[in-house]
Amino acid sequence: MSENHSVGGTASSRILQTLDRYLGRGSYYWLKDRIHPQREYTQLTYARLIDEVLTPQTRWLDAGGGHKILEVTSPEDELAMVQRVRLAVCCDRVLDAIAKHRSIRLAVGATLDRLPFRGQSLDLITLNNVAEHLERPREVLSEFARILAPGGRLIIHTPNVSSYAMRIAELGRRVLPKAFIMKLIRFMDFREEEDVFPTYYRANTCADLAAAAGQAGLSTEKMLLVPARPLFYFIAPLCAAELAASRLMIRTGAERFAASVILAVFRKPA
User: Fold this and answer.
1) Over the stretch 229-248, which tens digit does the pLDDT of each residue have?
2) How far is C-alpha 185 from the geometric centre of its chain's CA atoms?
3) Between 128 and 2, whose confidence is greater?
C-alpha cells in the first residue's frame, strides 16, 4: 500500500514539475524566445560590461556581492574573469558569505562607506544588486571615488524604481504581510530569509544615480535601461502579456517605464 502511495506521489510530483516548466516558472524561457527573442538575462549583459574593461593589470574589487560576482548558476564565467586580472578581491560586511566565495579567494570584511584600501589603489569596482541596499549611497560612491585610480571604473547593476515592475513590487511590500512576501521570494527567486536584506532605493533612478556619482567626482560613461524577467513570469498567460507589453513600450521609447534594471558605468577622470 505504501509502495503504491509512493508511486502515486512520484507521478503527481512529475505532473506538477511539468506544469511548472511549461505553464509556471519555466514558461518565461520559451515565451521569451517567441515574443521577445532579443531580450537577454541582465546578469549576462552586466558580465559583458565587466569583461570589456578587464586587462591583465586590472585591480578589481567586487563590493557587497556576498559569495558570488554574478547571479548565474555556474561560476565558470566569473572564474574566467577573475583569472584574467592582476588582483581580484571581494568585500562585504557579511563575513560568512565572503568566506565561501566561489571564485574570489582574497576577501575583506568591511562596510562600503569605510573601505580598508589606499587612495587610488584600484582600477575597477563592481556592484551587483547592492546599490538598492545602500542607506547612504552618496557616501559609498565618494568612498569608491577615493580608492579608484584615475581612469578607473565603477560598474553597477541595480533595480530601476521608475519601472512598472518595481512600482508594483513596492506596493506589494507595503500592503502584503511579511510572511506572504517571504513565501513569494522563496518561490520566485529561491532565496531564504537570511538572504533578503533591507532596501532603501535612494539612488535607483538613472537621474539619481548619475547625480550621486557626479557629486562623488565620477563621470557617466554609460547608462543602460534593460528589461529583466517579467514580474509575473511564473504564470504563463500573464508572462506572455508582460513580454508583449514590455516589447511594445521599448519600441515606442518608454524604456524608463518598461525596463526594471539599470546598468551603469562610471569613470574617474584621468
Assistant:
1) 999 999 999 999 999 999 99
2) 15
3) 128
C-alpha cell of residue 72: 548565474
Q: Is residue 56 part of a domain?
A: yes
Helix (H, G, I), strand (E, B) or coil at 126: strand
In this prediction, residues 209-229 reach a mean pLDDT of 97
Give the CATH number for residue 78.
Answer: 3.40.50.150
Cα–Cα distances in angstroms (integers) from residue 232 to residues 18, 25, 81, 159, 173, in the given order: 18, 9, 33, 16, 15
Residue 46 to residue 141: CA distance in whole angstroms: 19
Q: What are phi and psi of 180, to 5 degrees?
A: -70, -40
Q: How many helices (DSSP H) and strands (DSSP E) are in the chain?
A: 11, 7
Residues contacting residue 25 through CB under 8 Å, at least 6 positions apart: 188, 233, 234
Q: What's the rounded Cα separation, in Å, for the pair 185 and 190?
A: 7
> Mean pLDDT lowest for which of 5-9, 75-79, 99-103, 224-228?
5-9
Residue 51 lies in a domain: yes
| Number of domains the chain contains | 1
